[in-house]
Amino acid sequence: MSVQEQNQQTVFEQLFLPHLQAAYNLARWLTRNEQDAQDAVQEACLRAYRFSARFHGGAAKPWFLKIVRNTCYTWLQKNRMYKDSTEFDEALSGPDLHIPDAEKVLLRSEEKELLRLALRTLPDTFREVLILRELEEMSYREISDVIGVPAGTVMSRLSRARSALSQVIVTLTNKVAA
After folding, report:
1. Each residue's pLDDT tens digit in the chain (178 positions)?
2. Which domains, from first to last, does the chain contain?
3. 27 and 44 in contact (C-beta within 8 Å)?
4. Is 140 helix (H, G, I), strand (E, B) or coil?
5. Which one, of 19, 34, 32, 35, lies nearest residue 67 by Cα?
6. DSSP-derived secondary structure for 7-39
7. Please, which contacts does 12-20 make with residues 24 or more away whose CB atoms are closer than 8 Å?
């Protein structure tokens, strides 16, 4: 391995590997399948490594997540047209070290399932801004960089996404209660 390749590898590891979990979370919500998400992140890592010389500083996370997002959408267009597949597994997000009583666990589980169902019904443009903002805690500007739209559009989509999510949750809650 040449010195240049070693430097490229070191830069890649320092800048992008810390964001692998965020990349997987985004890919998981976009592909709706664990295996597809893993494949998309692996492909995105290869692309990011290959084109890391084009990264000229700034925030690495948005640059990397943009590659992940584009990789997911390219894969989805080639392999399937956004059909549902495996459910999202909350357990992959990390362990909960606090153990509440059984009733709280059941209620929390039902709330998580309701939220997962509601998120699944949203259009991809709404779901991705919610995931990037609420789960990945990215700024409007970072989300703008990832999805390639102005920050004002991000704010507008986020507002509409939150409203739509709220309406879907109310609808689903009413169906369950009936």
Report:
1. 777 777 778 878 888 899 999 999 999 999 988 999 999 999 999 999 888 878 877 889 999 999 999 999 998 888 865 444 334 444 444 444 454 555 565 566 677 888 888 888 899 999 999 999 998 999 999 999 999 999 999 999 999 999 999 998 888 888 877 7
2. 1-83 (1.10.1740.10), 98-178 (1.10.10.10)
3. yes
4. helix
5. 19
6. HHHHHHHHHTGGGHHHHHHHHHHHH-SHHHHHH
7. 12/48, 12/49, 12/52, 15/52, 15/55, 15/60, 15/64, 16/45, 16/48, 16/49, 16/52, 16/60, 16/64, 19/60, 19/61, 19/64, 19/65, 20/45
Distance CA 72, CA 66 (A): 10
Which helix (H) or strand (E) segment holds residue 63: the answer is helix 60-79
CA distances from 45 to 3, 67, 168 (A): 21, 8, 34
How far apart are alpha carbons 105 and 54 in whole angstroms? Answer: 47
Spatial CB neighbours of 168, under 8 Å, sequence gap ≥ 6:
117, 118, 121, 122
Q: Which amino acid is at 32?
A: R
**Residue carrying structure tokens 């779901």:** 127
CA dihedral 90, 95, 97, 100 (to 10 degrees): 20
